[in-house]
Amino acid sequence: MKPNLLLDSHKLLWHLDRLKEWQEGKRIAPIHIDMGLTKDCNLRCLYCYGKVQKLDKSKIPKEPLIRFLKDAAEIGVKSVAMIGDGEPLMNPAVYDAVDAGYDSGLDLSMGTNGTMLKKEKLPELLKKLVYIRFNISASEPASYSYIHQCPEKCFNLAIENIKECVGIKKKHGYKVTIGMQMVLIPECLNQAVPLAKLGAELGVDYFVIKHCSDSETKELNIPLEIYPQFEPVLKEAEKYSNEKYQVIVKWKKILSLGKKKYDRCLGIPFLLQISGNGDVKPCGFLFPKGGYLMGNIMRQSFKDIFNSEQYWNIIKELAENFDVHALCGTACRQDYINEFLWNLKFNIPAHINFI
């Protein structure tokens, strides 16, 4: 049976206790944190937001990384996604981090290009992850080499590791969800349907097609206005869904890129992000910018950062003064929950008791 995935919306309705505390003005722990383990990557994908975030060789060492995960669990964080601004497998502490986070009771996930996975580590890794998502935007070696800016052999490495993960999941009956993700840009549109077919053949649980994020100054030069023209191709890709496999197109963002239905950023208390150099900032768009630094987990405990006035003053600034239309990039990570929270707090309809 395929999992009931909700990838084109938010899940705050399943956290009403924390939502109520936020409405009451209480200081809440994030439900989820996206974190980089490094700002380094072995690929240079055409669409990578890391170009804006200024990739380098930074890596979070093992000790502060494990300390952070334990702190996060203790203050009430429920999940951590090891994705962020670099390739997590470039950090040699990644497997120790998964062990520590799992032992602390966190739900863990990983986004990876899959080329550097160690096969001997996979059984234990897959046992401890809620999901693993392979970032792949081309269906054959030559196109993969162009889109991901790497040797063609990287495609074969990624595919072999996806196959290995699917086989291990079936052999052990693990609950881990295995997915593939395509970042859609015009250069890889012709790969959407072949990738949907490939995902079905490989036996993964889902294949998701998502928008490309760009900065507020359009540094990646992505022509957002033409995304609606991709609709026929994406609908063709969706046809490969079956009873065990889902092709999911993030229609909400693809068809409304750059259009925000809220004026301030309210979602940070629920969803936080950490750069691969250890900086704790409200979101990835702010990683390369001055200011908005809540702390750094390589120099401070996450508990101390969370309890600091610096942390909460930045959250207050974003909720009260930050102009998302002028200062924020496209396809914001917090977009879904920002829209929900904005409506909940400021866009209350008349006659609310007539449900």
Order of helices and strands: HEHHEHEHEHHEHEHEHEEEHHHH
Question: What distance separates the N and C termini?
Answer: 34 Å
Q: In this structure, how is the largest beta sheet organized?
A: 10 strands, mixed
The percent of residues in helical segments reads 25-40%
Overall radius of gyration: 20 Å
- pLDDT averaged residue by residue: 93
Number of contiguous helices: 14
Strand content: 5-15%
Please mark out the parts with pLDDT under 50 across 5 or more consecutive residues, or reply none.
none
Number of strands: 10
Give the overall shape. globular
Category from helices, strands and their pairing:
alpha/beta
User: What strand line-up does the widest sheet have?
Assistant: 7-6-5-4-3-2-1-8-9-10
Describe the structure.
By secondary structure, the protein is α/β, with parallel strands linked by helices. Helices cover 36% and strands 12% of the residues. The chain contains 14 helices and 10 strands. The chain has helices at residues 16-23, 50-53, 62-75, 94-103, 122-128, 141-148, 153-172, 192-202, 231-238, 251-254, 302-306, 309-320, 324-327, 335-346; strands spanning 32-35, 79-82, 107-112, 131-135, 177-183, 206-210, 246-249, 271-274, 279-281, 295-296. A 10-stranded mixed beta sheet has the order 7-6-5-4-3-2-1-8-9-10. Helix 3 runs parallel beside helix 4 (94-103) and helix 5 packs across helix 7. It is globular, with a radius of gyration of 20 Å. It starts with 15 loop residues before the first helix and ends in a 9-residue tail after the last helix. The mean pLDDT is 93.
